[in-house]
Design goal:
- It is a single chain.
- The protein is of the alpha/beta class.
- Helix content is 54%, strand content 10%.
- Bound molecules: fe (ii) ion.
- The site of fe (ii) ion has 5 residues, from helix 8 and helix 12.
């Protein structure tokens, strides 16, 4: 697909996107806000929530407090705890089938990106029972009302609680996104108390996912609005300020709260402005090797930003100035920004390369990445398969 065609597509899409009914979830935030889920259910007359939460989450004191409140309201919970990282189509189908068997009337998801994406994809299947997930992949293919969805993130990174996307992995290890405005959750609950128990490496990796969302959205050509730029800037500044503090002291509620808000803001920015080539490559690593999404993005972000060269300089220079970095030219500021991302990764124990990539997989990875990115992602530099392959090779340790 040539670059001119991609740019023409992006210009047309940007015009069309202005007329789409964009919305954001109703947000409840603050320590203890998980309990607001009970009010939401009561106020909406919802009595049979299909709950997606891990076993560990269900044993947690915050969840038990919510359960007690729901017991008082005679609300019965149907709990599903078996969502794997990088959720498979099979798991999504199981959720949709179980939801129907239990005659549920809404989703309550408490977890990271994987359970949230699995719930959104299952909701898409319920709205479109005649279409397999593979046919719902891409943009605006669902176009139906989904069951009410309350999203409660327990990591600060994915932003899935406010985005149009649900990412799933097919039986051939191909990770793909179903993106539609109807998949934006109706409610998002940002309770920092739910993230205090996160291990440092998950705090780091998910936080770098949020940073990647904000930076890729900010670099987007055509799709940005004044508001998405502001959201991305806020998110970048907040992540530079709070991520490493949350990494070092997981119990710091102000840092955890700031990261949840930053992740939400970055999600709201990229759902309108799009992600870019970092995500296109990261998804291939998640699908083929099970690399966590945040780790994949963290490693790839500086490599891809560097590869964009001058095309990304003005935006990166603005972000660098916002986070207080110094430089005498746009180019030196942009370089300082990329160097600081690398330094953050190092300080948080994130490697600078992968050691899992099999050389023989690179052509397939490049094909998948190009299929995901082109023509939709309005990146500073359109990559063809050969350039994707070169960047993937560079991200491997032996290079
Ligand atoms: Fe992401």
């Amino acid at each position: 697909m040539n670059a001119m065609f991609c740019r023409a597509f992006q210009c047309c899409f940007a015009v069309g996107a202005r007329f789409l009914p964009w919305r954001t979830p109703e947000v409840f935030s603050g320590e203890g806000s998980l309990l607001r889920a009970a009010d939401i259910l009561r106020e909406n007359g919802l009595r049979r929530p299909f709950v997606i939460a891990s076993r560990r989450q269900c044993a947690d004191e915050h969840f038990r407090a919510l359960q007690e409140k729901l017991d008082e309201q005679d609300i019965l919970l149907f709990i599903f705890s078996s969502v794997e990282p990088n959720p498979s189509v099979e798991t999504v189908e199981k959720i949709a089938a179980q939801y129907k068997i239990d005659s549920c009337d809404c989703f309550l998801v408490i977890g990271g990106g994987s359970p949230m994406d699995a719930a959104k994809a299952a909701a898409a299947r319920l709205a479109r029972p005649g279409k397999p997930l593979s046919q719902l992949a891409g943009l605006l293919k669902v176009r139906r009302r989904i069951p009410p969805l309350i999203a409660v993130p327990t990591t600060a990174g994915t932003g899935s609680e406010t985005t149009i996307a649900a990412v799933v992995t097919g039986s051939d290890h191909h990770k793909y996104a179903i993106s539609d405005l109807c998949l934006i959750p109706r409610y998002a609950i940002l309770d920092p108390a739910l993230t205090v128990g996160l291990p440092p490496h998950i705090t780091a990796e998910t936080g770098m996912d949020a940073l990647t969302h904000a930076v890729e959205a900010y670099l987007s050509r055509f799709y940005n609005t004044k508001q998405t730029r502001l959201l991305a800037e806020h998110a970048v500044v907040a992540i530079f300020t709070h991520l490493e503090r949350a990494y070092r002291d997981g119990t710091s509620l102000p840092d955890r709260a700031a990261m949840l808000q930053a992740s939400f803001d970055a999600g709201a920015a990229f759902t309108r402005a799009s992600v870019g080539n970092v995500h296109a490559i990261a998804h291939t690593l998640g699908g083929l090797y099970g690399v966590s999404h945040g780790l994949a993005n963290a490693v790839l972000l500086p490599l891809v930003l560097e590869d964009y060269g001058k095309a990304a300089c003005p935006c990166l220079a603005r972000l660098a100035a916002l986070v207080g970095l110094k430089g005498e030219s746009e180019e030196s500021l942009a370089k300082a920004f990329i160097a600081e991302i690398r330094a953050m990764n190092t300080r948080m124990g994130i490697p600078d390369r992968f050691n899992c990539i099999r050389k023989e997989d690179i052509p397939l990875m490049a094909t998948w990445a190009a299929q995901e990115a082109n023509p939709v992602y309005p990146v500073p530099v359109i990559y063809d398969e050969a350039r994707f392959a070169r960047v993937i090779e560079r991200s491997h340790h032996s290079q």
